[in-house]
Amino acid sequence: MPNTFSIEAHDLKKIYRRGSEEIPAVNDVSLSIGQGEFVSFVGPSGSGKTTLINILGCLDNPSSGRLRVDGRDIFTEGRTLSEADLTRIRRDLFGYVFQKFYLIPTLTVLENVVLPFTFYKKPGAEKGVDEILKMLGIDHRKNHLPGQISGGEMQRVAIARALVNKPRILLADEPTGNLDTRRSSEIGLLLRELNKWEGLTVILVTHNPNLAQMANRSVELRDGMVYTGPEACKPDEGCA
Ligand code: ADP
Ligand code: MG
User: What distances in angstroms separate CA 55 from CA 5, 114, 148, 190, one per listed residue?
Assistant: First the structure.
């Protein structure tokens, strides 16, 4: 039977140590994300969003807990895959998009988009590049340099670059943090389309409530924990 979960996390914890102080950036988070889901992560600055999705995206190790991605054990109580296996998982399964676009200014849009092929190319992946550029509305920009296009277009170039190796999961950490309202909604709509039409699992971290609600599900983090709303409290137990 095919595995229907992209991500299964149990009791994930990440503790940073600053001198003698321990900072639980992620504190016993358990959650599952189904294949083809579009989930947004919201929460105040410092609530652990980046730390958590970096762990879910296999970019960082938890201090403890268990993580399965696409049916594979990544981290199980203190044991993690080898760096070589992790590299394989990252390049086979994930596309990453960040707030900063990280485009190379001296390369054209097209050259930036196909840059991942320098390191690794899935068989036949080059055939999909034109279609991706068209879908993202940047095909007319492919010979331009990043400095000659708008911020919204730059982020779409970064998304195209994340897609060329046909990931199963797209991870986007505050992708619209540097964009105005209109460009942000455009990126949100695009993520929704990619999720709907390409069946891509999308994990989006955002401060923008309008963007967060474009997802099928929103997970709120507070102090490194999943927030599930105020505890049920009955008036006869002393609560107003
Ligand atoms: P968010 O993305 O929601 O703003 P982060 O995951 O970046 O939250 O941070 C969660 C907490 O962990 C914060 O208290 C932050 O200061 C702390 N933190 C994040 N990265 C580090 C690090 N490398 N070393 C120490 N503390 C960190
Ligand atoms: Mg963050």
Answer: 16, 26, 35, 25
Ligand index nearest the alpha carbon of residue 100: 2
Q: How far apart are CA 225 and CA 25, in angstroms?
A: 9
Q: Is 112 in the pocket of ligand 1 (CB under 6 A)?
A: no
Q: How far is CA 233 from the centre of its chain?
A: 35
- Ligand nearest the Cα of residue 18 is 1
pLDDT at 1: 44
pLDDT at 119: 92
The alpha carbon of 77 and the centre of ligand 1 are apart by a number of angstroms equal to 22
What's the CA-to-centroid distance between 176 and ligand 1, angstroms?
A: 20
Residue 235 has pLDDT above 80, yes or no: no
Q: How confident is residue 238, by pLDDT bands cut at 50, 70 and 90?
A: low
Give the residue, out of 15, 41, 50, with the most ligand 1 atoms within 8 A of its beta carbon, to mutate for a pocket test: 50
CA of 18 to the centre of ligand 1 (A): 11
Residue with tokens 């981290």: 75
pLDDT tens readout for residues 217-234: 999 999 999 998 776 555
- How far, in Å, is the centroid of ligand 1 from the Cα of 158? 24
104 CA to centre of own chain: 21
Q: Which of 47-51, 86-90, 195-199 has the lowest mean pLDDT?
A: 195-199
